[in-house]
Amino acid sequence: MNIYVGSLHFKMSEAELREVFEEYGEVSSAKIIIDKYSGKSKGFGFVEMPNDAEAKKAIEELNGAEVSGRKIIVNESIERTERRSNFRDNDRRGGDGPRRDYR
């Protein structure tokens, strides 16, 4: 299961992120997203855990937990393509919705 982890301390390393989740089971990968221009952490990342039961327990117990002085956000990651298509499907205006003229 792929897990989204947000509100991370900007100095947290991938090794530290992995350690936090290894308390709940096997971790396949831990990745912190880095800004390509500044080279600094964007404050979120992803953890992959092969065992869904262990992953769900980690999500349940770590969401809202304090790690490195910050309350982290932890939930199941939604695939990017699914999230984008769902966003478009939920936009019911479809170009025919109410319009406001701000002239």
Structure write-up:
The protein is α+β, with helices and mostly antiparallel strands. It has a domain at 1-41 and 50-71: 2-Layer Sandwich (Alpha-Beta Plaits). The protein is 30% helix and 26% strand. The chain has three helices and six strands. It has helices at residues 14-22, 52-62, 80-90; strands at residues 2-6, 29-34, 41-48, 66-67, 70-71, 73-76. The strands form two sheets. A four-stranded antiparallel sheet has the order 2-3-1-6, with helices on one face. It has a two-stranded antiparallel sheet with strand order 4-5. β4 and β5 (70-71) form a beta hairpin.
Q: Let me know the CATH homologous superfamily of the domain at 1-41 and 50-71.
A: RRM (RNA recognition motif) domain
Order of helices and strands: EHEEHEEEH
Rg, alpha carbons: 18 Å
Number of strands: 6
CATH topology of the domain at 1-41 and 50-71: Alpha-Beta Plaits
CATH hierarchy, class of the domain at 1-41 and 50-71: Alpha Beta
Shape: globular
Distance between the termini: 50 Å
Arithmetic mean pLDDT: 88
Helix content: 25-40%
Please identify, by name, the CATH architecture of the domain at 1-41 and 50-71. 2-Layer Sandwich
Low-confidence residue ranges: none
Strand order of the largest sheet: 2-3-1-6
DSSP strand (E) fraction? 25-35%
Sketch the major β-sheet. Answer: 4 strands, antiparallel
Decide which structural class fits the backbone.
Answer: alpha+beta
Write the layout of secondary structure elements.
Blueprint: E1 2-6, H1 14-22, E2 29-34, E3 41-48, H2 52-62, E4 66-67, E5 70-71, E6 73-76, H3 80-90
Antiparallel strand pairs: 1-3, 1-6, 2-3, 4-5
